Amino acid sequence: MTVYHRPGWFTSHVFNPIVAGFTRAGISVLGSRVLEVRGRTSGQPRRTPVNLLQIDGTRYLVAPRGETQWVRNLRASGNGRLLLGRRAEAFTATELDVDEKLPVLRAYLKRWKAEVGMFFDGVGPDSPDDDLRRIASAHPAFRLSTPQ
């Protein structure tokens, strides 16, 4: 299932630039980072603010809006960088299958439901696994690891 929720004017022109500005200045807003991934056709670095989720020392990225450009670029490249101020952390990404996503989606919704809950079809952090499984394919998620 390919789903993409295009950001509205306020998100694109006000909210994301503010969060990205704070993040570029080195101030993380609830785990925010700027994701930098090489564009799959242009080869140029593309940047977008993301929410970095950490569970038991493992880091994840979830696409609440679905099949975004950053998701497609990350699938194509398999790696990127997370930026916070002047710090840049390189990573490799592994896309999660549906069953691996369930605890990640649950934790993501627990932390950011107020911000992104409208994209999850009424599913929340306390929803049954069957509900999370139903919407999981619409929300790509990646496990990040440090390249060797």
Describe this structure in words.
With 148 residues, the protein is of the alpha+beta class. The chain has a single domain, classed as Pnp Oxidase, Chain A. Helices cover 35% and strands 29% of the residues. The chain is built from four helices and six strands; from the N terminus they run αβββαββααβ. The chain has helices at residues 9-24, 69-77, 98-116, 129-136; strands at residues 32-38, 45-55, 58-62, 79-84, 87-95, 141-145. A six-stranded antiparallel beta barrel has the order 1-2-3-6-5-4. The longest helix has 19 residues, at 98-116. The chain is globular. It starts with 8 loop residues before the first helix and ends with a strand.
Which helices and strands, and how do they pair?
Elements: H1 9-24, E1 32-38, E2 45-55, E3 58-62, H2 69-77, E4 79-84, E5 87-95, H3 98-116, H4 129-136, E6 141-145
Antiparallel strand pairs: 1-2, 1-4, 2-3, 3-6, 4-5, 5-6
List keywords for this structure.
4 helices; globular; Pnp Oxidase, Chain A; 29% strand; six-stranded antiparallel barrel
Quote the beta fraction.
25-35%
Structural class call reads: alpha+beta
Biggest pleated sheet? 6 strands, antiparallel, barrel
Question: Reading side by side through the largest sheet, how are the strands ordered?
Answer: 1-2-3-6-5-4
Measured distance between first and last alpha carbons: 33 Å
State the gist of this model.
The chain is of the alpha+beta class and 148 residues long. The protein has 4 helices and 6 strands. It has a single domain, classed as Roll (Pnp Oxidase, Chain A), CATH 2.30.110.
